[in-house]
Specification:
The structure is a single chain. The chain is α/β, with parallel strands linked by helices. The chain is built from 17 helices and 14 strands. The chain has helices at 2-21, 67-70, 74-87, 100-112, 127-133, 152-156, 190-199, 215-219, 238-251, 259-267, 281-288, 324-334, 337-347, 361-372, 380-383, 386-398, 403-418, and strands spanning 59-65, 91-97, 119-123, 159-160, 163-164, 167-172, 175-179, 204-207, 254-256, 273-276, 292-295, 309-317, 350-351, 374-375. The strands form three sheets. Strands 1, 2, 3, 6, 12, 13 and 14 form a seven-stranded mixed sheet that branches. A five-stranded mixed sheet has the order 9-8-10-7-11. It has a two-stranded antiparallel ribbon with strand order 4-5. A hairpin with a 2-residue loop joins strand 4 (159-160) and strand 5 (163-164). The protein is globular.
């Protein structure tokens, strides 16, 4: 009965987060304690661990991915798979593409029913809820000593408490994409961005949700939760950021509830700046070529750094699988240094693995954004953020609601849901 109750809550939470992050193929301290500082550096060490997984894998695995529905990451993913197949001729891999909007709920439903694929790759959007519901294999023992040298924030982002539930692959945070043929220098401050939107030099598009917009709250000095998980957004910064959302709209910024429409408008030149994630890299490169550039979200009026959620992507494994050891070995080969070099070069991924050279300034821009970002918390309290604050974003933008009152109400609802 306990598992059934947890699973019902899990489905509801997954639906909220899928909506929040659906415009990207993938979406942001990963413990019950909410971090108050920026995430640790995501720059990979210069040396790789000696061995991450044995060669000569044999058997059969069924895995899920959502890159086809998310854009140009699929090329890098397939190239890595082809290399693993060539190196392991006795390994059969069955790949099933799942729409990103469905992947979490379908996994939860299948695994709770005793079935499901062996593994899937996705961001840590629902890590806490899935681990709590028992639909992810505990990989703590299997990964002991296997993640040496990996980015610390990626390892922490794979945990709930002190247990590992994911093999980390990459880090993701949103940043400011812009067309440098139209915007010579990205606005470095919120004041400069607002002025550029007002004078028309920056044609800005923004995803209207509590995920893409979150980084601005750090720019204005806001803090979401204290060390107990209690919402403290009403104590400063958040209301200023929400008022800034209104100011940007009044100045001419365009807000989108359909991320694909925003993407299309940027690719066709109707917009020359958008805030979105690295999962758009290949498609944006195809559309804009050498005109494409990336910068961190702007700092606030007092020098506060934007702190977009820094999420970890990685491989999750089915506790029902009869091939858990094989799945772990496959995942470790997939995230090894040579393969992560491919994903960085072709898919725009910020690598979790050590020894990867970031050759593309676009990828480096996202590595910088992730380093300044807020490591996506993995706690029951944080799961109660999405509904109240998603509604709050809509209220201030669609109904011109008072920012201070709206934030205070959202914080109150979040704490009530957390029992605080």
């Amino acid at each position: 009965m306990k598992r059934q109750l947890r699973f019902g809550a899990l489905l509801a939470g997954a639906a909220v987060v899928a909506v929040a992050c659906s415009s990207g193929g993938a979406t942001t301290a990963p413990s019950a304690e909410a971090p108050s500082a920026a995430a640790p550096s995501v720059e990979a060490p210069s040396t790789a661990p000696e061995s991450q997984a044995p060669a000569g894998l044999s058997g059969e695995l069924t895995l899920w991915e959502s890159y086809a529905s998310g854009g140009g990451e699929l090329g890098g993913f397939n190239k890595i798979l082809d290399g693993i197949k060539a190196a392991n001729p006795d390994l059969k891999i069955n790949v099933v593409e799942q729409p990103f909007s469905d992947i979490f709920n379908k996994w939860n439903t299948d695994v709770a029913a005793g079935g499901g694929a062996d593994m899937f790759i996705a961001p840590n959007d629902n890590l806490f809820s899935q681990a709590d519901a028992g639909v992810l294999a505990d990989l703590t023992s299997a990964l002991s000593g296997k993640l040496d040298g990996f980015s610390p924030v990626s390892v922490e982002g794979s945990k709930v408490g002190d247990k590992l539930f994911m093999v980390p692959e990459s880090l993701k945070a949103v940043a400011l994409w812009y067309d440098k043929s139209a915007v010579a220098t990205a606005p470095a401050t919120t004041e400069a961005l607002l002025a550029a939107v007002k004078d028309g030099s920056v044609k800005l598009g923004l995803n209207q949700n509590a995920y893409h917009m979150f980084g601005f709250t750090g720019s204005f000095g806001g803090k979401l939760m204290d060390g107990t998980g209690k919402c403290v957004a009403d104590q400063g910064g958040f209301a200023d950021a929400f008022k800034y959302f209104q100011d940007l709209k009044a100045a001419g910024a365009k807000y989108y509830t359909d991320g694909n429409a925003l993407k299309q408008d940027f690719q066709t030149g109707k917009l020359n700046a958008v805030i979105d994630g690295p999962w758009q890299t290949a498609d944006f490169k195809t559309a804009l070529g050498d005109k494409l550039a990336v910068a961190k979200m702007p700092a606030g009026p007092s020098g506060g750094k934007a702190d977009p959620f820094t999420g970890t992507d990685g491989w999750y494994i089915n506790p029902n699988s009869k091939n858990i050891d094989l799945a772990v070995a496959f995942a470790l080969q997939f995230v090894g240094t040579a393969n992560e070099q491919i994903f960085s070069d072709l898919g725009g991924h910020v690598p979790a693995a050590p020894g990867v050279t970031i050759n593309d300034p676009l990828v480096q821009g996202f590595a910088d954004a992730a380093a300044d970002g807020l490591a996506r918390p993995q706690s029951a309290q944080f799961n109660n953020y999405w509904g109240p604050f998603g509604d709050a974003v809509n209220q201030v933008l669609d109904k011109n609601a008072d920012a201070t009152t709206t934030v205070a109400n959202a914080c109150k609802l979040m704490n009530q849901a957390s029992g605080l």
